[in-house]
Amino acid sequence: MTGELSPIDKAKFVAAKRAVDFVEDGMRVGLGTGSTAAWMVRCLGELVRDEGLKIKGVPTSTRTAALARDVGIEVISLDEARWLDVTIDGADEFDGDLNLIKGGGGALLQEKIVATASDQMIVIADVGKEVETLGAFPLPVEVIPFGWQTTKALVEEMLISMDVLGRNTTLRMIGDHPFVTDEGNHILDLHLSRIGNPRQVAMVLNQVPGVVENGLFIDICDTVIIGYGDGRVQVR
Ligand code: 5RP
């Protein structure tokens, strides 16, 4: 499955491999989205295929659903599962309090719903994702397409009123077209540099009409598994 890996892929792979140790027979597992989560899905698939592990997976995106089915994981919806034993997902940044920025892959809405509906959320990440203060990675905010420019203006006003540094907000594009999430929405990326009070920013963003959800995951993640390019793994 791995062949010759670059240090970054090795870091993602070893974190993913360690995370699947937390998965037991009969569990309902939230399956994250992104390149690190994809390693985890492949590792779980291997356990299903080679060791007869019996799990049901709830994917957080159509991409992950396709991969999970491909590797032999039984896929069910969140409404079928109702509640999950564990969710394993990647992140764009994590800080010392295990708060996260997510949504670089555009799946933050389903990721947050699934993680919140889980007994525990485990984040897998290469060591480069660790930060002292969140915000160097642009904060993704999912907005409905209707009136998105007005929503963007309201979000920017809100940032000014909160005195958050750096107020450059961009609509995420794919070529000439706005990126469309699995739920049919768009993503605004907020270039903030530094988010001093992520809890407050997360709460206030979600008050803006047109905002569906933001990529700050506060008090949701229980454990971070950090992978290193030399194959070491650290669990926090
Ligand atoms: C997708 C996400 C991803 O978990 C995040 O972007 C990290 O991705 P990768 O593992 O590819 O670095 O939040 O919406």
Automatic annotation (TrEMBL):
It holds the Pfam family Rib_5-P_isom_A. The active site is at E111. It is an enzyme of class 5 (isomerase). It catalyses: aldehydo-D-ribose 5-phosphate = D-ribulose 5-phosphate. Its EC number is 5.3.1.6. It comes from the Bacteria. One of its GO terms (molecular function) is ribose-5-phosphate isomerase activity. GO terms for cellular component: cytosol. The keyword Isomerase applies. Pathway: Carbohydrate degradation; pentose phosphate pathway; D-ribose 5-phosphate from D-ribulose 5-phosphate (non-oxidative stage): step 1/1. Substrate binds at T33, G34, S35, T36, D89, G90, A91, D92, K102, G103, G104, G105, K129. Transmembrane segments: none annotated. GO terms for biological process: D-ribose metabolic process; pentose-phosphate shunt, non-oxidative branch. Keywords: Isomerase. InterPro entries: NagB/RpiA_transferase-like (IPR037171), Ribose5P_isomerase_typA_subgr (IPR020672), Ribose5P_isomerase_type_A (IPR004788). NCBIfam families: PRK00702.1, rpiA. Homodimer. Catalyzes the reversible conversion of ribose-5-phosphate to ribulose 5-phosphate. Belongs to the ribose 5-phosphate isomerase family. This is Ribose-5-phosphate isomerase A. The gene is rpiA.
